[in-house]
Specification:
Helices cover 81% and strands 0% of the residues. The chain is mostly helical and 387 residues long. The two termini are 26 Å apart.
Amino acid sequence: HTTFVSFSMAKNALCTVLFALLGPGSRELGLTEIMGGGISSLAALTVVLASPWWGRRVDRWGRRPVFLIAMFGLGITTLLFALTLQAGLFGLWTGVTAFVLLALARMTYGFAITGAQPAAAAWMADNTSAEDRTGGMALIGAAYGLGAILGPTLAWLMSGLPLGCPSDLIAALALIAGVFAWITLPETVPAEAASAPRLSPTDPRLRGTLLIVVTAFIVVASIQQSVAFYVQDTAGLDAAGTAAGVGQAMAVLALLMFLTQGAIATLRPNPGLLITLGAAIGGSGCLLLALWPTHYGILIAHALFGLGFGSIIPGLQGRSSLAVGPEEQGATGGLVAAGMAAGYAIGPVFGTSLYTVFPMLPYVVGAALMTGVVVATLPALLLRRDS
């Protein structure tokens, strides 16, 4: 568990740092809002394409080797991205050249780290009973939340330094965590997993859950990518002030996600209840962000995002894991990771495109999508047909 906490902390710290820094950094490099969103979308598209492949490798090669590849890949590719960003800020490239190089660096990162989530989910499934499965998935999420607290905190505290400095630090942490994983991580892959049939995203056991995964992460990514512009434009801040303000909001989000998933990890919750309740709370956060675009409104909205998405994510992971057998856990984790990444591929460009039409539109649409999830899942929950 400690090994997965170490990786998850480093990975999500990096992700949240990049969302806080990429908005103002892209403007300093002469990129448009949509180009900034496109960098994240291309990285996420790489994860979409690679996740099913890595998921099958988890079942065939084992949990440990795939996880170690992701761990060391995180450190190396994070350093690559940080150096590319810093070189652009020093004036070596701007505009389209900066966009292409940053996108390639992020796509390399996306491929390198993609095996981590299916490996972690499969390992947790190997080591939990059906009753404890959703709580176990929440424990992984709490570890990600721990990293998400570190990331925006670094962005906030280091906002006076060059924008790439937090990424350099996180790259070093990831490499240290990789050495720790090499020493401590055991193998748990079931013997029958190597001969498991290929799992399709249209499998009736998974397709409804995967559709909700994509929807939820479109909302998450559109908010995270556009909120830096929203904060900067509504408050009239410079790049450093924006990074600090967004860092505070994301720190609140991460703290609430961490506390929510930590609480879920100690219980045996119904995954369907978590999905419905989380979508309702997350949708209310979207609506609040649209209606109250002040410093306190943005912080409270991010607190609601933390509560909502801290509930819906382990609910989705738990429901998908319980729907399949032990020999399909890696493949299932890969499909869930692909669904999350699909949301991140669509969400940044989706959110920034809506933002250029009307600044509050990404959050109004996000509230509508989350309402749709509630409407779709509530009847089954009331009828006790949800797994």
